[in-house]
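Supplementary Text 2. Reproducibility record for the structural model of the 360-residue chain.

All settings were left at their defaults, and a single model was retained for analysis rather than an ensemble. We include the record here because the model underlies the residue-level annotations in Supplementary Table 4.
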Amino acid sequence: MQHLSDVLSSRQAEVMQAWLDEVRGTLHPEAMPRVELVDHLPDFVRNVIASLRHAEAIEEEDTAAEEHGSQRLALGFSLDSVVREYGAMRTAIMRVATEAGVVITTRDYQVVFDCVINGIAGAVSEYSRQRDAEMQRQATEHFAFVAHELRNPLGSAILALTSLEARGTLPAGDRAAAALDRGLRSMQDLIDHSLRLARVGSGVDLRCEPVMLRALLEETESAVAANAEEKQIKVEVKLEGEPELLVDVRLVRSALSNLVRNAIKFTHPAGTVSLRGKMVGTHASIEIEDGCGGLPETDLDKVFSPFVQLDPGKGGGFGLGLAIARQAVDAHGGSLRVQNLPERGCIFVLELPTTTAIAD
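Retained model, structure tokens:
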């Protein structure tokens, strides 16, 4: 008595032709070359044969299914077409077996069914992953383009207003002019934030270089000095050791600046913000502790979400600073988390790779 595995092994060409007959004119254009259409499906048939020949279950070869899903996305197939392709393959297998007079056992049906389900899962998963990544890339690219195009006319408007003020054309203390200036600069901040968010979320290669953590902390302290002075906030910098980081300096500088400015913004007047750095294993740990009074536990998961402001009454803003910091740290394979200190404040903890970590 012939076994299903033997028939499929000797009649693979017939199986592929039966599959082509099933899908021709329905799941793909008639003009599509056969070599592109069948691509990884012979690997699928071979996996079915191997599974039928073993009493124990055989794990599906995920790579072929994933490559199939990726290729189908590139060729413009819809997701439901990818699913129906595997259903058509099951029909083709059973058709060839029936024509050959094979007695198909319950186990044979179950093995073919399991292989089809595993094939669908692998192909659909990779198809969806790549489709979603491409959609995100396109959205980020468009977002960055719009933000960038807005910068030029906005910069011209700010320059014109500054020129008018310098020439004394505008009345001193004019409230309308002051409101216009605040509005323009708020728009400029939003656009700059948006461009940074688009860059760290776009998957572009990082331009990493060695930099001493001390230099980054001191630069951050200088950058926020005016914000701290306005609220009479003391910024304390403490460093243990001399860690050397291997990072994209501009992104990390932006992340630290956003985190410390956020700490100053929410710390009570005349309070203290602590900026601490040290080595933890092969990574550098940076802590920013504020005096905000603490957060409700229900808010801790929201702090890094874009456009979320847990206390909109404190200084305005767009709720992008912490989101930018999180994405910048994630891009380096680091981590950023927040620890709540009830009735005291919060500690934001960054971990970033050092040159020691890269060497190891």
